[in-house]
């Protein structure tokens, strides 16, 4: 059930766009223990993600996801963020994001 709730929430975010923006490409594959989707809109925004349940049925069951999203900012530059979201939290990377110093 957690899988369905997370997937619906992520899919809703992908479609949360202003009314004058149209979806120009969309695909999704939903399996019992995994999913994969991609969405592109007419304003240059795109998102793709795939995920799966790790350790199904175990006490430490969780979803592990990998993906990326891109958008055109007000300055006209396209920004892209790639990420992993797993038992270690949300881990984004992008050329425009700050990086913590090495410990």
What does this structure look like?
It holds the Pfam family Chitin_bind_4. Residues 42-53 have a biased composition (Polar residues). One of its GO terms (cellular component) is chitin-based extracellular matrix. It is a single chain. The protein starts with a helix and ends in a 10-residue tail after the last strand. It has one helix at 2-15, and strands spanning 23-30, 34-41, 46-54, 62-72, 78-86, 89-93. By secondary structure, it is mainly beta. The chain has a 6-stranded antiparallel sheet, covered by helices on one side. The protein has one domain (20-93). Helices cover 14% and strands 49% of the residues. A hairpin with a 5-residue loop joins strand 4 and strand 5. It has 1 helix and 6 strands.
At a glance:
The chain is mainly β.
State the share of residues found in helices, binned by percent: 10-25%
**How many helical elements?**
1
Termini separation: 39 Å
Q: Rg from C-alpha positions?
A: 15 Å
Quick tags:
103 residues, mainly beta, 6-stranded antiparallel beta sheet, 1 helix, flat, Cuticle_Struct_Prot, structural constituent of chitin-based larval cuticle
Q: Could you outline the blueprint of secondary structure elements for this entry?
A:
Blueprint lengths: L1 H14 L7 E8 L3 E8 L4 E9 L7 E11 L5 E9 L2 E5 L10
Antiparallel strand pairs: 1-2, 2-3, 3-4, 4-5, 5-6
